[in-house]
Amino acid sequence: MEPLPNSRTEPDGSAVIRVLSYNIRSMRDDTAALARVIAACDPDLVLLQEAPRFFRWRKKLARLAAASGLVILSGGATAAGPALLCSLRATVERTEDVLLPLTPGRHRRGLATAVVRIGGARLGVLSCHLSLDADERHEQAGLLLDRLAGMGVTHAVAGGDLNERPGGRTFRRLGDGLRDCWTAAPWGSEYTFPAFGPDRRIDAVFVTEGIEVLGCGVPLGLPGVAEDDLRAATDHLPVLTALRLPASGD
């Protein structure tokens, strides 16, 4: 497997970054293994799903961030599960947690969002966990695209647990407005669920036009990422993406 580019800032202000998307199942599994996986991926931004939402959820999320060498950016219970972590390389411009319309009898869903600057690049960031119901999921994808369009940024990255395979209408809807990073530059492994014997890709990272995708996939074989840790950490496998962000010019 070809190495994934390391993070760096170029002389022209453009930035190479690593983005990790990961469903962590409310940290109900091996949290030490989870932190080791995240740290080994060396991300600048982490898009979490199923972050802790109940008793002492902020403390749990803060402990995970610290153990991974990161800090909390936004989300958690205030976004109904999605959360964002970042390295100290990111300068935070603003954050916003968004609750999506609630369908009676179903789980509350939300979006964790932020605008950050890394090097000379300015980037919108969004983490999502879409519904298990096909119609609700499709509607949520439209709300996600509307949210990105309203963030006032030229470039953005969005990722999460879509609860749908490529080819599904929600996946296609997102792909019509954004670029699927795995399709653009496959790297590592494709399938993200379940962690034991993965046979489907239901977790993905998308970017807006103008961002160069340098590689995207499950980091099997990445130095420091142990297969035992991947299986012990949670029931999903993470998606690691390397991106080149153009300098914003503002």
Low-confidence stretches: none
What share of residues is helical? 10-25%
Mean pLDDT: 97
Tally of DSSP β-strands: 13
Q: Please count the helical segments.
A: 6
The helix/strand order is EEHEHEEEEEHEHEHEEHE
Q: Tell me the Rg in angstroms.
A: 16 Å
Sheet/helix structural class: alpha+beta
| Straight-line N-to-C gap | 37 Å
**Main sheet record:** 7 strands, mixed
Shape: globular
Strand content: 25-35%
Question: Any overview of this molecule?
Answer:
Helix 3 packs parallel to helix 4 (169-177). The longest helix has 16 residues, at 134-149. The chain has 250 residues and is of the alpha+beta class. Helices cover 23% and strands 31% of the residues. The strands form two sheets. Strands 1, 2, 3, 4, 5, 12 and 13 form a seven-stranded mixed sheet that branches. Strand 8 (121-129), helix 3 (134-149) and strand 9 (156-161) form a beta-alpha-beta unit. The protein contains six helices and 13 strands.
Give a nutshell description of this structure:
Helix content is 23%, strand content 31%. The protein has 6 helices and 13 strands.
Reconstruct the topology from this structure.
Elements: E1 8-9, E2 15-23, H1 31-41, E3 45-49, H2 57-67, E4 71-75, E5 83-86, E6 91-99, E7 110-118, E8 121-129, H3 134-149, E9 156-161, H4 169-177, E10 179-180, H5 181-184, E11 203-207, E12 212-217, H6 227-233, E13 239-245
Parallel strand pairs: 2-3, 8-9
Antiparallel strand pairs: 1-2, 2-13, 3-5, 4-5, 6-7, 7-8, 9-11, 10-11, 12-13
Helix pairs in contact: 1-6, 3-4
